[in-house]
Amino acid sequence: MDSETDQNQDVSETLETKKSKFDPNTVWGTFKVALAMCIICSLVVSTAAVKLRPMQQKNAENKQKRNVLIAAGLWDEDEHTDGNIPELFKDIETVAVNLPGRSDDDPEAGTLDTAIDIKTYNQRKAPKKPDQGIMIGDQDVAGITRREKISLVYLVKNDSGELQSIVLPIYGKGLWSTLYGYLALDADARTVKGITFYEHKETPGLGGEVDNSKWKSQWPGKIVVDESGSPVVEVTKPGNASQDYQVDGLSGATITSNGVEKAVRYWLGSDAFGPYLDQFRSDEIATTEE
């Protein structure tokens, strides 16, 4: 009798032990493992994202400033590193410019917006926000549909505070993607100082050559706006550029070349930076007349 009782007790203890043990080979056990791994991975990723965010923001800021410097002709790939950016950027003033609006309540086009926080303003996201972007409509030669109401502009000055160049952010539709870049003008607001495209998804070896230094070297010295302030730049068929307002297009990339021309024309025109640039041209005319 005692042995039978002991046997039942042993069986009971064995069942209790099995119930208390974790078995990953069961459906419930597999679920627990998966859940635990998801929680652990989420915590690791979240922690890494939080810790890396300042570094990512700094890298993004350096990339933006580096491309402004490239367009302005102040960056030497063989000589400069990100450590040189603060020194190179110290004479560059960043201003927020009101672009032409669509209602009487919008600020006057070409004036400076002093209320915006330049350090936190995200110009890339602004076009998609109802309060920061507008539909372009019939004037959309660049094929971008919407644009920001306020754009940042970079004024490069010398040690004496005299304006050397005006760097404008530009973008427009290429063949496969939107091309994002910067166009730098001399202080006359008519002559190109430099151009660069830092983001696109055009075909490598064809449209992708927009960021080729050899092709970009054609732009400095080109007259892209006439005396009345109207954009005149032309990107021709390869080898056909013969005027001071013409640039040879990319071989085998007609649509991308046309996209560059239309983007530059749009952003220099009356629906974008035209009213702002007119102020510099007016000053130039007044100085000449004196």
Strand and helix map with partners:
Elements: H1 2-20, H2 27-71, H3 85-89, E1 92-98, E2 133-135, E3 146-148, E4 150-157, E5 163-173, E6 178-186, E7 192-199, H4 213-216, E8 234-236, E9 246-248, H5 254-268, H6 274-289
Parallel strand pairs: 8-9
Antiparallel strand pairs: 1-4, 2-3, 4-5, 5-6, 6-7
Query: What is the element string, with H for helices and E for strands?
Result: HHHEEEEEEEHEEHH
Strand order of the biggest β-sheet: 1-4-5-6-7
Q: What's the rounded overall pLDDT mean?
A: 88
Number of domains: 2
Helical residue percent? 25-40%
The portion of residues forming beta strands comes to 15-25%
Kindly provide the radius of gyration, computed on alpha-carbon positions and rounded to a whole number of angstroms.
29 Å
For the record, give the distance between the C-alpha atoms at the N and C termini, rounded to a whole number: 124 Å
Please state the overall shape, judged from the principal axes of the Cα atoms: globular
Q: Describe the biggest sheet? A: 5 strands, antiparallel
Secondary-structure-derived class:
alpha+beta
Let me know the number of strands: 9
Please work out how many helical segments DSSP would assign: 6
Uncertain segments of ≥5 residues (pLDDT<50)? 10-19, 285-290
